[in-house]
Amino acid sequence: MSAALRALPSVEKLAHALSRELPLSKALLIGLIQRESTAWRARILDAGETPEREEIETDIRQKAAALANSRLRPVINATGVCIHTNLGRSPLGQRSAAALNSIATGYSNLEFDLATGARGQRAGYLETALAAVLQTQAATAVNNCAAALVLTIRHLIAGGKDEVIVSRGELVEIGGGFRIPEVIETSGAKLVEVGATNKVHLADYERAISDKTGLILKVHRSNFTIEGFTAEPPTPELAALAHEHGIPLVEDLGSGALMATDQLAPLDHEPTPMECLVAGIDLVLFSGDKLLGGPQAGIIAGRADLVAGIKREPFFRAVRCDKLILTVLQECIDDYLAAHAGERPDVPVLGFLAAPQGQIADRCCALLDSLADLPAHITVVDSTANTGGGTMPKSAIPSAALRIAPRNIAVEQLAARLRSQAPALVGTIYDNALHLDLRTVFPHQDTLVADLIVRSFAHDD
Ligand SMILES: *Cc1c(COP(=O)(O)O)cnc(C)c1O
Fold this sequence. Notes:
The protein is α/β, with parallel strands linked by helices. It contains 19 helices and 15 strands. α2 (about 10-20) packs across α3 (about 25-45), α3 (about 25-45) crosses α4 and α5 runs antiparallel to α15. The longest helix has 22 residues, at about 25-45. The model has no long low-confidence stretch (mean pLDDT about 95). Bound molecules: pyridoxal-5'-phosphate. Pyridoxal-5'-phosphate binds near residues 174 and 255.
C-alpha cells in the first residue's frame, strides 16, 4: 500500500509539465491535480487498488485535457446546420464585432443623456429601432426568449387573473428542458388547456375564457409539425375573440425571421413577427440569435401600454440585457433598417441560407487539389443543410460537402483530431465517412479548413 501511495505524482512537477502541454494556468492545474490525487489516494487506501504512477498521470492528463477543451473557443462549423445551438447559434457580422470592441473597451452612454448631461434612458435607441423595423408601437429586449415569456406571463397575470389559455397542440418542448406547461407554472400562472393535439376550434377557446383569464398564449410549433386531420382558428378570429373579452393575445414565435425565408432559400415560409402583429397579436416574443441572426436576446414587441407595463415589472431588472448585448443587437437591427425592401442585411446566417448550392460545390472542389496527397478517398458530394436551432423542422437546403474516407485511421479518429485543432473543425459522420458541409463555413476560412485537414493527417495521437 505504501508503494502504491508513492505512485501519486508530485503536484508541483506534474502541474509544471501539464502547463507546457495545455493552455491551462499552473494555478488551475495545481487545484485539479490535488483533487484528482485525493481521489486516487482514496482508491488506494479504501479500495486497495495498486496503480502505477503512469496510470495515475495518464488519468490526470486526460482530465486536464478535457478541462482545456471545455474552455470557450472558436469552432469552424462544417455541419451544414446554420443555427447550431451547441455551436453558439448565430455568428455575428463584422459590423457588430467592431461595435462590440469599441463599446466593450471603453465607457459609453448606456444610461446617460449626452444632450443634457443627465441620466438617460437605457436601450432607448434600440427600442425605437426595434419598433420601427417591426412596424409596431413599441418593443424591448431581455436576456432570451424564455425570459421574455416568463416576464410577459408574470405581468399579464398580475391582479388575480392567473389563467393562461393554450391549445393542446402547442404545449411545446423547445429543448434543454424548456416546456411550455412548466414555464407557465414557473411564472405563477395556471395552465388552461384547450382542444385536442391535432384540432382546436374557436369555440374551445371561447368556453375556456373566464374572469380569471390573464392571457391567451399561442406558441409557434418551431421544432415539429402536425399534419393530416388538423384545424386551428385563424389568428384574426382568435384575436377578435380575445379582444371582445378584453384579454391580451400573446404569441411565442421562437425564431422570428424578419426576412421572408421562402425568398432566401428553398425553405418554407417562417411566420414573421410583423405578420403576427398585423393579424391581431398584442405581443409577439422571439429570439435574437435564431433567424434574426443577432446576439442571445428575447424581443417583446407590440402594444405600447403592455410593453411599458412589462418594463415596469421588478423582474424586468433581473433579465435585462447588458451593454454588450445591447450594442450587438443595435447593430443587427440597424443592418435590417439599412437594407432596402427585400434586400438581405449583412447577417452571416442569412448569407449561409441564401448561398446557391453550385457555389458551395465550387468551393469544395477548389479544395480538392490541396488534399490530393492525403491517405484518404476525398470527393465532393451533394448534402443537405438545415436551418437548425429548433427552427423550421422540415428545412432541407440542397448543399455540398467534402466527403473524406480516411485509409490509415478510423473516421472517428479523424473527426476527433479535427475537433482538437485550433480552431476546432466540426463535421458530420455518416456513411462511414466524414462530411464537411461548407454552407456554414465562412468562405475566407476555406483554405484554413484545408490546412486543418492536412494537419490532422500528419498528426499522431
Ligand atoms: C427557441 C424557442 C424559445 C426559446 O428561445 P431562447 O431565446 O433560446 O430562450 C422559446 N419558444 C420557442 C417557440 C422557441 O422556438
